[in-house]
Design brief:
The protein is of the alpha/beta class. The protein has helices spanning about 15-25, 40-50, 65-80, 105-130, 155-175, 190-195, 200-210, 220-230, and strands at about 5-10, 30-35, 55-60, 85-90, 135-140, 180-185, 240-245. It has a seven-stranded parallel β-sheet with strand order 3-2-1-4-5-6-7, with helices on both faces. The longest helix is centred in the middle third of the chain and has 28 residues, at about 105-130. The structure holds nicotinamide-adenine-dinucleotide. Nicotinamide-adenine-dinucleotide (NAD) binds near residues 12, 63, 64 and 91.
Length: about 250
């Protein structure tokens, strides 16, 4: 699906949806750059991608730190000289609780990673892609960027911001060969969901029942959507916020 010399970046790819996406890009034939704040798990994830027989490099970066994000992209430029696809996936759920019980520190932390950090990623990726052959970017939003969820105000605000940033970037760079889309997953069984449900079976069932399909999603179901959106098969799609949610927002 991707030319052998093409390069795909996935942030937050030491675990969960990001790791599945890095593996899916590798299976589709791209060279993969993995990035995460967790160095040990990130290196292990890159090893998993290399086992597919493709080039994979891990570069540690905390998305909360603009200088680290810039250094990550500078390293991609130096090592590969190009960037064809990027999935801005790193994100946190933050603390749970209603607005009146929420701290400003939590709000700043969640926005700082999920929205401000992603904005810096987007700037760097646009620069690299515009200097090359163009490319495709997929931002990891959430159904929480399309509808509200009580108890997660900062997270919902950050993901709503990601959706609007995606639409704006798509409009600004469509003519110059860069497509920008967002994917909005429902509940996908990862460590993030395990933290939110505390692995309590009754809570897990409540999460599953939010989706008309009556189960949580699998990481591969999101990863395959991201890779498809970045591929030539999706060449006329830009500015979309695509729900991968078993029908949750169709209700
Ligand atoms: N799991 C879900 O149900 C779900 C639903 C909708 C959206 N999402 C979004 O998908 C993305 C991935 O979620 P997940 O469930 O795989 O999460 P996860 O917590 O299982 O994995 C997240 C990965 O991102 C990394 N990360 C966190 N903060 C980082 C930072 N500041 N800099 C760099 N890396 C960082 C973590 O180290 C980890 O490897 C997130 O943006 C999340 O908001 C998840």
């Amino acid at each position: 699906m991707f030319a052998k010399d093409s390069v795909a970046l996935v942030t937050g790819s030491a675990a969960g949806i990001g790791l599945a996406t890095a593996l899916a890009f590798g299976r589709a034939g791209a060279q993969v750059v993995l990035s995460d704040r967790d160095g040990e798990r990130g290196e292990a994830a890159a090893e998993q991608v290399r086992a597919l027989g493709v080039t994979a490099e891990f570069i540690q970066a905390d998305q909360a730190d603009p200088e680290a994000v810039r250094a990550l992209h500078a390293r991609i430029k130096e090592r590969f000289g190009r960037l064809d696809a990027a999935c801005n996936n790193a994100g946190i759920e933050g603390d749970q609780g209603p607005i009146l019980e929420s701290s400003l520190e939590n709000f700043d932390r969640v926005i700082g990673i999920n929205l401000r950090g992603l904005f810096v990623c987007l700037q760097e990726q646009l620069r690299l892609m515009l200097a090359g052959q163009g490319g495709a970017i997929v931002n990891m939003a959430s159904v929480a960027g399309l509808v509200g969820f009580a108890g997660l105000p900062a997270y919902c605000a950050s993901k709503g911001g990601v959706v609007q940033l995606t639409r704006t970037a798509a409009l600004e760079y469509a003519e110059r060969g860069v497509r920008v889309n967002a994917v909005c997953p429902g509940a996908i069984k990862t460590e993030m969901i395990d933290r939110l449900t505390r692995q309590d079976p009754a809570t897990e069932q409540q999460f599953a029942a939010l989706h008309p399909i009556n189960r949580m999603g699998r990481v591969e179901e999101v990863a395959d959507t991201v890779v498809w959106l970045c591929s030539p098969q999706a060449s006329f799609i830009t500015g979309q916020a695509l729900a991968v949610d078993g029908g949750l927002v169709a209700r």
